[in-house]
Amino acid sequence: MRNIRQAYASQKCAAKKRGIEFLLSFEEWYHIWQVSGKWDERGRGSEKYCMARHNDIGPYSINNVSIITNHENLSLGNKDRWKGKVVSNETKDKLKQARKLQVNVGYDKTIYTCVHCNKQVRSKSNLVQHTRASHA
Ligand SMILES: [Zn+2]
Asked: Measured on CA atoms in the order 121, 101, 108, 36, is the torsion positive or negative?
């Protein structure tokens, strides 16, 4: 547990410095990470996960964030790309998944079991991601 509150405080502080409202309580913030199943993959590399705002607009709040990879966050943060000229189907799929993940926060506590390898995952979108990644 030792670094979790620090991680929260530092994200909150970074948002403040960038002039972005940060409306998540520690509990909400941590819950979103827990439900995403990506806490252990949180970090700085492009394949690591971060908490991003939808369209990079508005506050960090429970209805406005998703856990996505830094790579996706950079692509989505680029406004020209975001405006739809170069958004690939793959990116759209990932976006859809990211949105599903967000929608599931706080509602979907079901454990899903992969029919291929019996791995257990926490949400339907994680199951979809797992199936695509491991059994496509
Ligand atoms: Zn599997």
From this structure: positive
Residue with tokens 């406004």: 79
Give the chain's residues under pLDDT 70.
1-2, 76-92, 95-109
Report whether 30 contacts 7 (CB < 8 A).
no
Ligand 1 centroid to residue 133 C-alpha, Å? 9
CA of 98 to the centre of ligand 1 (A): 20
CA 126–ligand 1 middle distance (angstroms): 11
Interstrand relation of 49-53 and 112-113 (parallel, antiparallel or unpaired): unpaired
Alpha carbon 33 to chain centroid, angstroms: 8
CA 122–ligand 1 middle distance (angstroms): 13
What pTM was computed for the model?
0.54
Q: How far apart are the first and last CA of the chain?
A: 35
In contact, 26 and 36? CB cutoff 8 Å: no
Task: Give me the phi and psi of 112, to 5 degrees please.
Answer: -100, 140
d(CA 40, CA 18): 26
